[in-house]
Amino acid sequence: MNILFVCTGNTCRSPMAEALLKKNNSNANVKSAGVFAGKGAPISSGARQVLEEEGIEVNHQSQPVTPELLDWADLVLTMSEQHKQSLAMQYDQWQGKYFTLKEYVAGDQAAADWEKLKQAYTEIEEKRVQFINDNRNKYEADALQQKLYEALKEDLEEIHKLENELPSFDITDPFGGDVTIYRDTMKEIEKNITFLLKKIDDENRDGK
């Protein structure tokens, strides 16, 4: 499997994820890149330090995301939802490969939660359009908006509840932080790399 990790500048989170996966799995082909990365920058000193504390030597140079990298990858794992959205907007032909790292390892439950929220958005939009069509001639603009809010209040509260229950799928960005922040981010990535390895092993065992 070819796995591409993506963050912003390809100097902190994604090279840490690349290094940690390479350390724990020699079967996967792993690369990293950044949605706004320059070419040839070294890994950040904080990321280098915390990796070296774990016995991982890194010789890394940043690179931007390119169509060639996305075509090469079987799986593109981003460090945040924003990174995933940026890729989807710029390179929509590979959308089926894009997941945040946390989203991918969370599996079916995460997908079900997002699907439930998307359905709620769809239903409230349908109700909004229907209400306006049915009542546009009954009220002035301000009154119509107030009546619309009253009609959709319970739906809005349900959406707010669903949004609050969703887990964050972002890996904390340590950029600009001290070495403690980098250690925390590395632990966060390492935990999810462990889940990733288990998921890959399970899928290989099932013949997927």
From TrEMBL:
Chain coiled-coil ranges: 145-206
Active-site residues, record numbering mapped to chain: C7, R13
Residues annotated as domain Phosphotyrosine protein phosphatase I: 1-134
Keywords (A to Z) from UniProt: Coiled coil, Hydrolase, Protein phosphatase
SMART domains per record: LMWPc
CDD domains listed in its UniProt record: LMWPAP (cd16344)
Molecular function terms from GO: protein tyrosine phosphatase activity
Pfam families listed in its UniProt record: LMWPc
Family membership: Belongs to the low molecular weight phosphotyrosine protein phosphatase family.
PANTHER family: LOW MOLECULAR WEIGHT PROTEIN TYROSINE PHOSPHATASE, LOW MOLECULAR WEIGHT PROTEIN-TYROSINE-PHOSPHATASE ETP-RELATED
Name recorded for this polypeptide: Protein-tyrosine phosphatase
Native species: Thalassobacillus cyri
